[in-house]
Specification:
Blueprint lengths: L1 H10 L11 H11 L12 E2 L11 E5 L7 E5 L8 E6 L4 E6 L5 E6 L18 E2 L5 E6 L3 E4 L10 H6 L1
Antiparallel strand pairs: 1-7, 2-5, 2-9, 3-4, 5-6, 6-8
C-alpha cells in the first residue's frame, strides 16, 4: 500500500498543465499597469478644511498660464476626463477651498461673470462640508492657478481685527 501511495504522489503533479516560470510575474505586471477606475460622478468641493477658526476657503487665486481672452476650464471632479462645468476668464478671482489627494487639483468656489460676491466662504464655518452656496464650485488643475492672499471683506473688519493686523 505504501508503494502505491508513493507512486500516486509522484505521478499526480504531472497531470496538470505546464506553467511558465514568469506566470505569476505577468499577473503582477498586469495588475500594476491597469489604469485606476475613473468615475464620471461629480465630486463636491469641501469647505472649512482648516476648522472653525479659519475662513471656509482660506486662499484665493486667479488663472495663470492662460492666454488673454482665454478661460480656465472648471471640471466636476479632480481629473482630466471629468465633465467641464464652467470657465473662468483670465484675471478673474476665485476662492481656493481644498485640494485633491495627489495635489494636482484645487477645489474652488467662484462667482459667475464679474459679480463681486463673497460666496459665503470668507467667514469661518462650524465644520467641514460640501459647498452649497450661491456661487458655483468645481475643480481646476493646480498648475493653472496663481495663489493670492485671502482678503477679509471690509464689512467683517472690526476693531479687534484691525488691532491684530
Amino acid at each position: 500500500m505504501r508503494r502505491f501511495l508513493l507512486l500516486l504522489a509522484l505521478f499526480l503533479p504531472s497531470c496538470g498543465e505546464a506553467v511558465d516560470d514568469n506566470h505569476f510575474a505577468d499577473d503582477i505586471h498586469q495588475e500594476r499597469t491597469k489604469s485606476p477606475p475613473v468615475t464620471t460622478e461629480a465630486v463636491a468641493v469641501r469647505i472649512g478644511e482648516l476648522g472653525p477658526n479659519f475662513p471656509a476657503c482660506n486662499a484665493a487665486g486667479t488663472p495663470r498660464n492662460v492666454e488673454a481672452g482665454a478661460a480656465l476650464g472648471v471640471r466636476t471632479a479632480p481629473f482630466d476626463t471629468a465633465k467641464e462645468s464652467g470657465r473662468i476668464p483670465a484675471g478673474q478671482r476665485f476662492f481656493v477651498c481644498t485640494r485633491s489627494h495627489d495635489q494636482k487639483w484645487f477645489g474652488i468656489v467662484y462667482a459667475e461673470g464679474d459679480k463681486a460676491q463673497t460666496c459665503g466662504v470668507s467667514s469661518p464655518i462650524a465644520s467641514r462640508r460640501a459647498y452649497d452656496g450661491p456661487c458655483k464650485s468645481g475643480w481646476v488643475s493646480s498648475p493653472f492657478v496663481k495663489l493670492t492672499a485671502q482678503t477679509i471683506p471690509a464689512q467683517q473688519v472690526d476693531s479687534t481685527t484691525e488691532n491684530a493686523l
